[in-house]
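Standup notes
- HV: blocked on the assembly model, inputs below
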Amino acid sequence: MRYIVGIDVGGTNIVVGTVAEDGSEVLGVVAEPTFVEQGPDAVVARIVKLARASMAQVPGKQVAGVGIGSPGPLDTKSGVVLLTPNLGWVNMPLRDRVAGALGLAATLDNDANCAIFGEWWLGAARGSDHVVGLTVGTGIGGGIVLGGAIYHGASDIAGEIGHMTIDSTGRLCKCGNYGCLEAYASGPAIAARAVEGITAGADTTLPQYVGGDLSKITAQVVYEAAHDDDAYALEVVRETAKLLGAGVANIINIFNPQVVVICGGVTLAGDTLFVPLRSEVKRRAFKPAVDVCRILPGALPGTAGVVGAAAVFMQRTWGKV
Amino acid sequence: MRYIVGIDVGGTNIVVGTVAEDGSEVLGVVAEPTFVEQGPDAVVARIVKLARASMAQVPGKQVAGVGIGSPGPLDTKSGVVLLTPNLGWVNMPLRDRVAGALGLAATLDNDANCAIFGEWWLGAARGSDHVVGLTVGTGIGGGIVLGGAIYHGASDIAGEIGHMTIDSTGRLCKCGNYGCLEAYASGPAIAARAVEGITAGADTTLPQYVGGDLSKITAQVVYEAAHDDDAYALEVVRETAKLLGAGVANIINIFNPQVVVICGGVTLAGDTLFVPLRSEVKRRAFKPAVDVCRILPGALPGTAGVVGAAAVFMQRTWGKV
């Protein structure tokens, strides 16, 4: 049995694990904050340190290589991260720097692609031929897995589903466009919408969760208050469900997938989110496409990106997962 | 050299042609109104009559089969049109009825899929690996051609790009959803937007094109007035360009294609449409994806559907185009 080190580089955290080639186990999962502000050399050193720490937890296992998932845009062929607003990298040869330091072969792919590929291999979308997924966190990433392979498009940019316009004259997104799904339903956007309502006088217990400091309201605080039956927090979650539902309906009308998988912190809201989300999709999308599609939370919270990065290595190196 | 009869069944017209397997010629192109109101038997009889008329114009050619494109949703495997609001058909075994009457093998696919497949085979998107297209007419259809094959999704519904929400609280669409691209930028929607402005007091020569009868304003009348430099008609076309631009930007962020091809009557507006459309896409979509993508009008006006339906027959029957 061979093992692959999967590395998930995020704007906030780096997560690393060592994955068996048959998917039977994910061992030595370790994580640390990315500390982007320390610059790319420090981040690469931390990635390498974590990879070594993960492998040290599985002594005697044969490690065949390393799969890396990183925010993009990036070039999967050359292994170079072209430009990441979140990490501040430009033309960073991440794959070869990590491979060189570890003395192992490596591959590089987009972090959201890896997460959805992981969900296809071992998670919520296991074995489905037509899978589209969203990773809802600081931003909204997307991944498209068709016929058991990540769909990359002409130049590795495909899958930017979070930057689908759902309201052409709507909120300004960090990408410069107006009305992107991400501008409404990412973690920070959910928090911003909640705070806007409070500032406008909404009757809610939300401020009590953050000692009255509205700048500390995060999406997770909103889910917590919703869980405690705060009516306004529930309304914010339901509104999020409607907005995500418009995006998922678009995905269903365009891709006619068997599974839409939603990963990331937003799944913490559970049925409070998924029940109205599925209703909204039913209202918006074509019935025969809705009927064949399951809308599911990711089944590998925290490790989908690690598992998927390892699967990318396997597929690109051995031609199969 | 073998020939294939390509049949494009529309809500308004049926177009038929006989296509050489090497794509070198499209012969015997004939067309008639569909006359949907006469019922399915009459429409099938007219399709068969037109197919015979087309073949009669190419005596001595070996006709290998028939490719049919029809509005959907439909089942490509069984050759059955499941339900077409425009044609009023339910569970109509169109493929086998036409095949039986002509004594030839036949295939069935969605009309917009066929049009974009035709543009991929012999038209504006020739030879590109990642192609997404729109057919803008009475409705807005879509087709996705990846790696030289139509992308059908899990149950032949994929590609309903016209029913992508671009304004989640926007105009009601015939499909029941709010804010679909089709509700803004189909031919009838363009005409409706123009008339709304006139009713609201817009200063325009448009009524003069239709003898003062606003109900006679069509999208084509708007393009004609725009061509004659009517400022209001130009504004309606530019607004259409912005709306289509939002849709095309979504396509580019999601699919990262080499070509987006736009077919149908709307291309009559020419640069008046395409110049602001391309600007809008640049403003909205990711630069590295925009940089690799050409946005082109269809190169086979009137016959893309016929050519593509024939190509579907070839691919499904012989495994190649």
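- HV (later): unblocked. Residues 226 and 234 of chain A are 5 Å apart (CA to CA). Residues 2-118+302-318 of chain A form a domain with the Nucleotidyltransferase; domain 5 fold (CATH 3.30.420.40).
- Next: hand off to the docking folks.
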